[in-house]
């Protein structure tokens, strides 16, 4: 057995971090293709499908943006939380609860909807609040009782998924459709996010998301709150000694990330599905964890990583159709990518020698 | 239905069902106790269980051997444990993050392996599972004889493992070293204990037990669902370590509470009740949250839990 000695490098240039991150982007699709080849599928057919599902066709490109939009909001929130070492893993549950709150509001006005300029902002506000409320519970369990937030946010997600399953088959179900499909009534057109690219599903959601990423950058790097979050993440005890309230940081980081996740769920339901479906629990909240890491936990990095992953999702579903392979393959590639990034980051920041 | 629940035979069936539902979590919780006592949180337990499950199911289905299935499940768990140990101990990455990576890896790997091996097999994928082995004489005792002393081999093994873990952690040099590197790694290091080696061992043993738990989950369910057969059991096992205050027996029996909670959902689904089915499915998760709040005040984790060890000036 060889034991390794790991020592931190004294200086890590921003350029080397950038190069390594870009490398991770380029390498990861090929990792997926290698897995496919190992499973006996034709990687060239997969590559072609991947190309057509992402940058090769207009439809593929639009779909990449559509998939990337909610992902961007979720990952932005997680990036902010993770900077403060607040490990919110429940973005999935928070976005589901955001969408549930949106549905609740929209159904109240189903018969007589108000004009779009009222319906859309209020609906988005409901999604924001839904996510924030749902994150507040683990936030307080962590900050007041010291309970590991990873476990609580995951448990909360299971609760949200079952609540969704119940609502679409119960109180929210559209009883007018014969055959009792598990879904809510289709939302009125006044709630649909305006489309900005003709003949596609690309909505103002992408603009909102990108703008919020810039605001997130400002909050994280230019405000006292952002400074406190980063200080706690860097060294909690030192931050505490210098008078930063760790309780406040944990609460605000968790609730902020929950609010953004809720908004992501809202943007998805108002922009894409226009109805509450069981598929709202798509696992996007878990993907967002990887996306925030791939974006180096940087709000502006998240813009690129989420569009990249949106492309990966759109591309992978194109590959899945072409090769008839399961969705779990995308999950596997996420797992490989997360481990890859961790190892790559170590190679940048540490020297590894044989001991 | 209520009348049926009350008679002796049904009570013993109920106990047997709870044990069977709890044992996968119990194995994983024991493994997590060992890992955390050495100072490493393995949040990837859920993923490790999934890999253990698919390995065991694969062997049982294609080769008909449950024993080899369990062994392969254990090996799969050990392998993921090695990856976890490498990232979190050698590379000193954040343990929470490393655990998440392992979780994703396990979910993806098990789902993919399932589709790759069973995708074309057809809808009814069933295995025989493990035979019951009643213990002579003891199994004749009314009520508990049919339930506690008429289990399959893995259920007995779970109790044996519990005793072994209690002895190893509490009464052996190895266990002392585990506790030392979890409480005060630099002191242990000064005394010549290799923090790295002990932590590697603890994480790999822990993941092996989680793999066995996953294997048993697959074998006892007889039919395999493609994705997510664990449904959060790995995370609940980690929560039970908190609940058990890092003591093996408390964590072990804590999982039985959750076996009962899962059973409740299944029971009311059969009976049909006024409580919506989906609320019953929430019970184990809500219960976890409530239990965590309840024990939060008194819990004191190992001092070095979650902290990668760096030798001063090293």
In terms of DSSP E residues, the strand content of chain A is: under 5%
E-strand count of chain B: 0
Compute the average pLDDT of chain B: 83
Radius of gyration of chain A: 21 Å
Give the topology, please.
The complex is a heterodimer of chains A (355) and B (314).
Chain A: E1 4-8, H1 14-38, H2 43-52, H3 58-83, H4 91-108, H5 116-145, H6 149-169, H7 205-222, H8 224-234, H9 236-241, H10 246-273, H11 284-294, H12 299-323, H13 328-349, E2 350-354
Antiparallel strand pairs in A: 1-2
Chain B: H1 2-6, H2 8-37, H3 45-63, H4 66-90, H5 95-118, H6 144-147, H7 153-171, H8 173-183, H9 185-190, H10 195-221, H11 233-243, H12 248-271, H13 277-295
Helix pairs in contact in B: 2-7, 2-8, 2-10, 2-11, 2-12, 3-4, 3-5, 3-10, 3-11, 4-5, 4-10, 7-8, 8-10, 11-12, 11-13, 12-13
List the main descriptive attributes of the protein structure presented here.
heterodimer; A: 355 residues; mainly alpha; 3% strand; globular; B: 314 residues; 13 helices
Task: Describe the overall structure.
The complex is a heterodimer of chains A (355) and B (314). Chain A has a domain of 241 residues. Chain A is 71% helix and 3% strand. Chain A has 13 helices and two strands. A two-stranded antiparallel sheet of chain A has the order 1-2. In chain A, α3 packs antiparallel against α10 and α8 packs across α10. By secondary structure, chain B is an all-alpha fold. The N terminus of chain B is likely disordered. Chain B has a single domain, classed as ABC transporter involved in vitamin B12 uptake, BtuC, CATH 1.10.3470. The chains are: A mainly alpha (355), B mainly alpha (314). The interface between A and B is large, with 53 and 55 residues.
């Amino acid at each position: 057995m060889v034991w390794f000695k790991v020592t931190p490098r004294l200086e890590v240039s921003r350029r080397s971090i950038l190069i390594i991150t870009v490398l991770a982007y380029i390498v990861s699709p090929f990792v997926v293709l290698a897995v496919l080849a190992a499973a006996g599928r034709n990687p060239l057919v997969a590559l072609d499908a991947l190309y057509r599902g992402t940058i090769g066709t207009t439809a593929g490109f639009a779909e990449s943006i559509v998939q990337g939009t909610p992902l961007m909001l979720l990952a932005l929130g997680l990036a902010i939380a993770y900077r403060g070492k607040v490990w919110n893993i429940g973005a999935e549950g928070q976005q589901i609860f955001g969408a549930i709150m949106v549905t609740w509001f929209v159904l109240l006005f189903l018969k007589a909807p108000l004009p779009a300029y009222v319906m859309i902002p209020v609906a988005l506000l409901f999604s924001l609040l839904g996510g924030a409320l749902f994150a507040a519970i683990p936030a307080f369990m962590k900050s007041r009782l010291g309970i590991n937030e990873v476990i609580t946010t995951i448990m909360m997600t299971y609760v949200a998924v079952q609540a969704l399953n119940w609502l679409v088959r119960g109180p929210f179900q559209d009883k007018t459709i014969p055959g009792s499909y598990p879904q809510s009534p289709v939302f009125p057109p006044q709630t649909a996010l305006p489309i900005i690219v003709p003949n596609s599903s690309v909505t103002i959601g992408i603009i909102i998301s990108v703008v919020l990423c810039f605001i997130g950058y400002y909050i994280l790097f230019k405000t006292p709150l952002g400074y406190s979050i980063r200080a706690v993440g860097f060294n909690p005890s030192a931050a505490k000694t210098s008078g930063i309230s760790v309780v406040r940081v944990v609460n605000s980081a968790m609730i902020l990330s929950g609010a953004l996740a809720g908004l992501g769920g809202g943007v998805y339901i108002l922009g894409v599905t226009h109805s509450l479906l069981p598929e709202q629990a798509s696992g996007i909240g878990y993907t967002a964890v990887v996306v925030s890491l791939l974006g180096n936990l940087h709000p502006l990095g998240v813009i690129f990583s989420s569009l990249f992953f949106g492309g990966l999702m759109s591309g992978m579903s194109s590959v899945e159709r072409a090769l008839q392979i399961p969705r779990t393959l995308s999950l596997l590639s996420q797992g490989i990518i997360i481990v890859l990034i961790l190892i790559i980051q170590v190679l940048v920041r540490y020297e590894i020698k044989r001991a | 239905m209520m009348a049926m629940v009350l008679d002796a035979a049904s009570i013993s069936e109920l106990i047997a069902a709870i044990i069977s539902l709890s044992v996968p979590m119990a194995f994983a919780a024991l493994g997590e106790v060992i890992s955390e006592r050495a100072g490493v949180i393995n949040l990837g337990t859920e993923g490790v269980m999934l890999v253990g499950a698919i390995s065991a199911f694969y062997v049982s289905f294609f080769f008909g051997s449950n024993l080899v299935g369990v062994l392969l499940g254990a090996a799969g768990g050990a392998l993921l444990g090695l990856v976890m140990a490498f990232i979190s101990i050698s590379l000193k990455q954040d343990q929470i993050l490393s655990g998440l990576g392992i979780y994703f890896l396990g979910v993806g790997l098990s789902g993919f392996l399932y589709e790759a091996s069973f995708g074309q097999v057809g809808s009814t994928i069933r295995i025989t599972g493990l035979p019951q082995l009643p213990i002579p004489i003891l199994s004749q005792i009314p009520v508990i004889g049919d339930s506690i002393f008429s289990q399959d081999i893995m259920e007995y093994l779970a109790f044996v493992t519990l005793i072994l873990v209690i002895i190893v952690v509490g009464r052996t040099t190895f266990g002392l070293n585990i506790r030392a590197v979890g409480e005060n790694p630099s002191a242990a290091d000064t005394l010549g204990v290799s923090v790295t080696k002990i932590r590697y061992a603890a994480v790999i043993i822990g993941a092996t037990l989680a793999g066995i738990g996953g294997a048993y989950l697959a074998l006892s369910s007889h039919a395999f669902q493609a994705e997510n057969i664990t449904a959060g059991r790995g995370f609940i096992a980690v929560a039970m370590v908190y609940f058990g205050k890092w003591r093996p027996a408390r964590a072990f029996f804590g999982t039985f509470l959750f076996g009962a909670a899962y059973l409740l959902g299944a029971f009311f689904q059969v009976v049909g009740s006024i409580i919506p089915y989906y609320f019953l499915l929430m019970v184990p998760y809500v219960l976890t949250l409530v239990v965590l709040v309840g024990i939060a005040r008194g819990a004191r984790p190992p001092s070095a839990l979650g902290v990668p060890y760096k030798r001063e000036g090293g």
